[in-house]
Amino acid sequence: MHLGNYLGLLDNSEKQITKAFAQVSRHHKDEPDIEQMCQKLSAWSREHRGKLVPYLQRYSTQQSTEPARLKHELFSAARSGSLGLIRDLHDLWLLTQEVQLSWAVIQQAALALRDEELKATCAFCSARTKRQTDWLLGRIKQAAPQALVVAD
Amino acid sequence: MSETRNAIQDIWGPRTPYHGTWPLRENERVTATPDHWVQSACVLCSNGCGLDIGVKDGRIVGVRGRAEDRINHGRLGPKGLHGWEANHSSDRLTKPLIRRNGQLEEVSWEEAMRLIVERSQELIRQHTASAIGFYTSGQLFIEEYYTLGVLGKAGLGTPHMDGNTRLCTATAGAALKISFGTDGQPGSYNDLNTTEAVLLVGHNMASQQTVLWTRILDRLAGPNPPQLVVIDPRRTYTAEKATVHLAPRAGTNLAVLNGLINLLIEADQIDHEFIKAHTVGFAELRQTVEKWTPERVEHLTGVPADKLLAAARILGNSKTLVSTALQGVYQSMQATAAAVQINNIHLIRGLIGTPGNAILQMNGQPTSQNTRECGADGDLPGFRNWDNPDHMEELARLWNVHPDKIPHWAPPTHAMQIWRYCETGSIKLLWIQATNPAVSMPELARIRRILQQKDLLVVVQDAFLTETAKLADVVLPTAIWGEKTGTFTNTDRTVHISYQAINPPGEARADFDIFLDYARRMDFRDKDGQPLIKWSTPEEAFEAWKACSKGRPCDYSGLSYEKLTGGSGIQWPCNEQHPDGAEHLYTDHQFNTHADYCETYGYDLVTGAEKQPEEYKANDPKGKAIILAADYEPPHEEPDAEYPLWFTTGRVVYHFHTRTKTGRARALQEAAPEGFVQLSAEDAARHGIADGDLVTVESRRGKVTEPARIGDIEPGLVFIPFHYGYWDHDEHDKRAANELTLTEWDPISKQPHFKYAAVRIRKA
After folding, report:
1. Quick one: pLDDT band at residue B1, thresholds 50, 70, 90?
2. Distance CA B368, CA B356 (A)
3. Which among A82, A135, A149 has CB closest to B609?
4. Chain B interface mutation, best of A21, A25, A33, A83, highest count of B Cβ atoms under 10 Å
5. Considering Cα of B462, then B465, then B467, then B472, what sign does the dihedral take?
6. CATH number of the B97-168+373-483+506-537 domain
């Protein structure tokens, strides 16, 4: 059974996104809404990791290194300015997709295993991940015209 | 000189006790006998009292309340009775000014307008119209907002237009949209005439809308008085009259409201049939509030459990309820989420759309309702939905422009973001009208810095050389109330006409004429090459606005200047179905939430993310009201060892905004000549401060020094009124409350958080 493996992958993704949200919050603290919302969304992902702990034990595992590489490529250096902000939010959006897909995969396994508890955790975390994605997309759409067309 | 009462000493006047029909009581104050009277309404708060302006020899000599007006039945408050004196103030601006070599110099209108137009055209060529931003007001008239909205959206095509209404009513609008599908107050002031209970949340009505408060005082003095629940951290005039006064810690409104809703559900004081037939989302609300037991609320907010229970009993046992909210909700943590919970109380109790039941998500300013309706803020005209292509088509047809001319790729830019774009340099022309951000915005040091930025052309349109105008590059002198004709709408949807009574001083012009002049010089055209703006008088503009509003909730199509003249103000919707206006919206409990009609597809109450149209359409509420829940979150800045006290801001009864007018009315100014630091006896003693001692209050953003006023406030909290700036005070001696406030805002309404910050104090 490879569920444990995949839980490890997801745990790592949530870890990466927790750090990435925190990093964007720090790098763009001149944008008050970015600073605060990214802190909050970072805390959500941290909480998701906490929820994963019992399943990681239940379906014990070895860790995968894949998502760490993903983060490494996405956030190569600190970016600033309005274009930098969009690129950071863009990368965060991609990370949420990685997380979302992992939750979807695990939910399939939970269904096959009739693990009601894991199913509920998947539903909760997957819905919150979608809210992270939605916020990122909305903020990107708001900022894009000014950053790409008007800003120096 | 004659006056019906000294409104400075006797703020609310004598009682006329009642239940049912509010008796007349005419108030008048004149300094000479007028030659004639001119119909108008008061613009010194959001109440909109009908009044006549007394004119003698071309000057205003006084005002009298209009007995026939549904809002005030003849009454006027201290600001209304005195504020008109500012019209004749000797320091009115009479000529345009341009900054040259660092100094503002008098120039001709031709020079000033040419400079603005040339800069606009240059910016459009180099950067598109998105390099131009407008920061307007809650003080102009419908005709002016609509003209501005059209020239901004269909002429320039810039998404950057918002008003100081962002600081004032943005949350009211957001909360109404979220619960009911569109903006629009469900009830009326008249509901106060019979209601069994009134819930005032973060709303010091006694100081802000003195005449509306008189309605309540008169009810309290009459038979079957209503019970009052007041939620406010200070013992205000309003709180003094409360049956139950809850004084929560700063930033905890949502916890208190969730606690109240929890008690209503637990006691089964809810209307199950109504909830089932007319709402969606109740299950999530129940789940969210159930952990907010009175004990938990007490622990977090400091509101004693027995008081919360007493308040819930009033809300639960009353067969009718009027609830109001203002800045204590809108400018505090989780503003929209908290305002929505007030709507939810009415929805779960089924108390809406019928006499005695009203939700008044109050406005702060006289015409802020119109900024929202006419699209001069972050909304589109007629409560249209920026994300609905059909609504954009409607506007494009109406204005005869291509739909893509109208920016609708994202929500219109909110004020806080407009200022941020100025700060980062991508907005290069900021045009400010009838507002004074150098005193009213949060974190003033930052605002002053932005206004003085090298590559930002700041245009200020005002009647006085305000703190903001002093930092401008171009100043345009304007006519004000009494010097121009137009219409405006108060909090309970009542539309008034205000006629020109006198000429403006010198070369001052109506904002309306300035906008028309700009549009003509910019040569804005429609698709057929005709002038985009086809009107040249306020009445023609009103007719154009009527056409824009027709079929929308704020339907003005049945109104006209003629109909508004001679009698009372009239409520919208006013159309074939409601020829004399309507006291209640949603009388059939059908709400404006249909996907093709709603103003918004909804928000995430925590992140503020806008919901996607497909998502909304898949669960189209089709006329059901939307119950949304949110859990409490702590404020972003809380007292700590370094800054151990909470700080909040607010008003005094004698002043409005930054005192631009009230500070120039002698009696009002003398009644409240300076600001103060209100603090509890406990905190005063701890710092060795006596009443009247100068106190320095310091936050991470700045410091101010004002005299101490001790008492009527919870320990741990410090209050400073926000009215006092520097036009009549040495600017090096900092005293404006907003030196201390922080730059952050509600995720949904984008309203800044003025109502909490961490500070420390010391005797100066």
Report:
1. confident
2. 25
3. A135
4. A33
5. positive
6. 3.40.50.740
Three-state SS string over A36-62 comes to HHHHHHHHHHHHHHHHHHHHHHHCCCC
Is the pLDDT reported for residue A70 higher than 90? no
Mean pLDDT for all residues in chain B = 97
Token pair, residue A92, equals: 């965060």
Both structure tokens of B370: 């119109």
CB contact under 8 A, B745 and A33: yes
ipTM over 0.85: yes
Question: Rounded to whole angstroms, how far apart are CA atoms B719 and B488?
Answer: 32
Specify the CATH architecture of the domain B170-362.
3-Layer(aba) Sandwich (3.40)
3-state secondary structure B275-300: HHHHEECHHHHHHHHCCCCHHHHHHH
- In a 3-state reduction of DSSP, which class is residue B402? coil
| Among candidate residues B141, B13, B248, the one with its CA nearest the CA of residue B478 | B141
The Cα B704–Cα B74 span in angstroms is 41
> What is the rounded distance in angstroms from the CA atom of residue B738 to the CA atom of residue B331?
13
Q: Which of A92, A134, A140, A146 should we substitute to test contact with B (largest number of B Cβ atoms within 10 Å)?
A: A146
Closest CA to B734 of B712, B764, B693, B690: B764
CB contact under 8 A, A142 and B745: no
Lookup: tokens for A143: 């900022």
Q: Tell me the per-residue pLDDT of B186-241, one tens digit each, with 9 for 90 and over.
A: 999 999 999 999 999 999 999 999 999 999 999 999 999 999 999 999 999 999 99
* Residues of chain A contacting residue B449, judged by C-beta atoms under 8 Å apart: none
CATH topology of domain B645-741: Barwin-like endoglucanases (2.40.40)
d(CA A27, CA A34): 10
Sign of CA dihedral B730, B728, B136, B117: negative
Token code pair at residue B98? 């341009």
What is the distance between the alpha carbons of residues B309 and B311, in angstroms, rounded to a whole number? Answer: 5
Looking at beta carbons, which residues of chain B come within 8 Å of A32? 416, 743-745
Which whole-number Å values give the CA distances from B413 to A145, B407, B548, in the listed order? 11, 10, 22
Task: List, in order of start, the domains of chain A with CATH numbers.
Answer: 3-150 (1.20.1260.10)
Round to whole Å and give the CA distance between B512 and B382: 19
Query: Do B46 and B371 contact (CB within 8 A), yes or no?
Result: no
pLDDT tens-place string over residues A95-152: 999 999 999 999 999 999 999 999 999 999 999 999 999 999 999 999 999 999 998 7
The Cα-based distances of B497 to A138, B252, B436 in angstroms read: 40, 40, 25
Residue found by looking up tokens 């631009």 in the block: B660
Distance from CA of A148 to the nearest CA of B (A): 11
The residue extents of the domains of chain B are 2-88, 97-168+373-483+506-537, 170-362, 645-741
First to last CA, chain A: 54
Look at the block and give the residue holding tokens 């008048």. B28
Strand, helix or coil for residue B59:
strand
CATH topology of domain B2-88: N-terminal domain of TfIIb (2.20.25)
Closest CB to A36 among B425, B612, B636: B636
- Residue pointed to by tokens 């970016």: A79
